[in-house]
Design goal:
two-stranded antiparallel ribbon, 3 helices, 89 residues
Protein backbone atom coordinates (compact mmCIF):
# COMPACT_ATOMS: atom_id res chain seq x y z
CA UNK A 1 0.00 0.00 0.00
CA UNK A 2 2.85 2.37 0.88
CA UNK A 3 4.60 1.55 -2.37
CA UNK A 4 1.46 2.33 -4.36
CA UNK A 5 1.03 5.61 -2.50
CA UNK A 6 4.64 6.67 -3.08
CA UNK A 7 4.52 5.74 -6.78
CA UNK A 8 1.24 7.63 -7.21
CA UNK A 9 2.66 10.67 -5.41
CA UNK A 10 5.78 10.57 -7.60
CA UNK A 11 3.76 10.39 -10.80
CA UNK A 12 1.47 13.18 -9.64
CA UNK A 13 4.48 15.34 -8.74
CA UNK A 14 6.11 14.76 -12.13
CA UNK A 15 2.90 15.58 -13.98
CA UNK A 16 2.41 18.71 -11.89
CA UNK A 17 5.88 19.96 -12.76
CA UNK A 18 5.40 19.16 -16.44
CA UNK A 19 2.10 21.04 -16.50
CA UNK A 20 3.79 24.17 -15.14
CA UNK A 21 6.11 24.52 -18.11
CA UNK A 22 4.73 26.77 -20.81
CA UNK A 23 6.23 27.82 -24.12
CA UNK A 24 7.70 31.28 -24.10
CA UNK A 25 5.92 34.18 -25.75
CA UNK A 26 8.14 34.13 -28.85
CA UNK A 27 7.31 30.48 -29.59
CA UNK A 28 3.62 31.07 -28.99
CA UNK A 29 3.59 34.13 -31.27
CA UNK A 30 5.49 32.25 -34.00
CA UNK A 31 2.97 29.39 -33.93
CA UNK A 32 0.07 31.85 -34.04
CA UNK A 33 1.53 33.66 -37.06
CA UNK A 34 2.14 30.33 -38.81
CA UNK A 35 -1.48 29.25 -38.27
CA UNK A 36 -2.77 32.62 -39.47
CA UNK A 37 -0.65 32.38 -42.62
CA UNK A 38 -1.95 28.87 -43.32
CA UNK A 39 -5.53 30.06 -42.83
CA UNK A 40 -4.98 32.98 -45.22
CA UNK A 41 -3.56 30.65 -47.87
CA UNK A 42 -6.56 28.35 -47.56
CA UNK A 43 -9.00 31.28 -47.80
CA UNK A 44 -10.37 30.73 -44.30
CA UNK A 45 -12.00 33.41 -42.17
CA UNK A 46 -10.97 33.23 -38.50
CA UNK A 47 -12.83 34.72 -35.56
CA UNK A 48 -13.00 34.29 -31.80
CA UNK A 49 -16.25 32.71 -30.62
CA UNK A 50 -17.68 32.23 -27.14
CA UNK A 51 -17.69 28.62 -26.00
CA UNK A 52 -21.12 27.51 -24.79
CA UNK A 53 -21.23 27.33 -21.00
CA UNK A 54 -17.88 29.06 -20.54
CA UNK A 55 -16.46 32.56 -20.40
CA UNK A 56 -13.55 31.43 -22.57
CA UNK A 57 -13.32 32.36 -26.24
CA UNK A 58 -11.84 30.09 -28.88
CA UNK A 59 -10.44 30.89 -32.32
CA UNK A 60 -12.48 29.23 -35.07
CA UNK A 61 -11.51 29.27 -38.76
CA UNK A 62 -14.11 28.49 -41.42
CA UNK A 63 -14.41 28.86 -45.16
CA UNK A 64 -16.75 31.52 -46.58
CA UNK A 65 -19.01 28.71 -47.86
CA UNK A 66 -19.30 27.20 -44.38
CA UNK A 67 -20.17 30.61 -42.94
CA UNK A 68 -22.87 31.17 -45.58
CA UNK A 69 -24.35 27.70 -45.01
CA UNK A 70 -24.42 28.20 -41.24
CA UNK A 71 -26.12 31.59 -41.65
CA UNK A 72 -28.78 30.16 -43.99
CA UNK A 73 -29.38 27.22 -41.65
CA UNK A 74 -29.79 29.60 -38.69
CA UNK A 75 -32.35 31.66 -40.64
CA UNK A 76 -34.28 28.51 -41.63
CA UNK A 77 -34.26 27.19 -38.06
CA UNK A 78 -35.41 30.55 -36.66
CA UNK A 79 -38.21 30.70 -39.22
CA UNK A 80 -39.27 27.11 -38.44
CA UNK A 81 -39.42 27.81 -34.70
CA UNK A 82 -41.35 31.04 -35.17
CA UNK A 83 -43.90 29.35 -37.43
CA UNK A 84 -44.39 26.50 -34.96
CA UNK A 85 -45.06 28.89 -32.06
CA UNK A 86 -48.68 30.05 -31.90
CA UNK A 87 -49.24 33.80 -31.97
CA UNK A 88 -50.96 35.90 -29.33
CA UNK A 89 -54.67 35.34 -28.76
Amino acid sequence: MRLLLSVTAGIFGALSLAACTTPNDAEREARLQERLAMADEAGLVCSYEQIMGSLRRERVCRSPDEIARAREEAFRETDRIQRATPGPR
